[in-house]
Amino acid sequence: MQRVKQAGDAGLALLFALKAAREAINLRPDTPGYFLFVGTGSHRALVSELTARRNQAFAGATSVAYPVLDQDYVAYLLDRLAAGGFSSLPSFDVAVKAFQALGNRPEEMIKALRQLHFHLPAGANPDEHLPVIANTLRSAAADIEIMKLEQLSGVPTAVFDRIASTDADARGLFSGEAAASYSKAVGREVKVEEVQPVINELLATNLIMRKGHGIYGVTDPFVQEIWRERKSLEGKI
Asked: Which ranges of 27-125 does DSSP label H, i.e. alpha helix?
């Protein structure tokens, strides 16, 4: 197994070398078996770039998101904690809802259950406190990502908002109509040529991902959900 840092000329060259090796083996007559290349990555925007952009080595290759953990994980986690002496545990149904509220993120769920165990008042009902803890952690987790956006501010926020507010994949981000909406949001004229550098910034910070030519989406659906909830509370949706 070889770890490949895709960003940079060296990483890109290595990916093209891997593609060349794959084609040399697979296109050779009478080759026993096949060369299959399977890659994984935590930076979803960069992983998406590898298959969505025409100048990438594996443009057009299949890109599949890992399925999230579900109720089986919650059951396993509750059983493991009970065996370890954790007594202040919620019911299964409440735990599942909390896990879903936390974006099916195991690290956040473990934090929530630990807080419940160590800080639950004597005689209190875990089922009443876990949802509060989960919602607090949920907001804090999203804040980490949204803080990246706030540091960029201005046009990047307007572009991200257009993408996050779209129910399906976002298109037409470079159109005149889109530029007019960005101008209205930031209070100055935004030219179409300003948009591409902004898109690149949002891709680099892993806030958005390219899903195809001219097609974009928010990298983390959890962050998109929080963003839209907050806009709704502010009466902007």
From this structure: 44-52, 71-83, 92-101, 106-119
DSSP state of 114: H
Residues 157 and 229 in one domain: yes
Distance (Å, whole) CA 67 – CA 25: 31
The 10s digit of each residue's pLDDT in 49-79 is 777 777 788 877 887 777 889 999 999 999 9
Q: How far is residue 10's CA from residue 46's CA, in Å, rounded to a whole number?
A: 15
Q: Is 166 helix (H, G, I), strand (E, B) or coil?
A: coil
Domain final position from 109, 127, 146 = 146
8 A C-beta contact, residue 203 and residue 173 = no
| Residue whose structure tokens are 């109720």 | 71
Longest dimension (CA), the chain: 73
- Does this model's pTM top 0.85? My answer is no
Domain that holds residue 194: 153-233
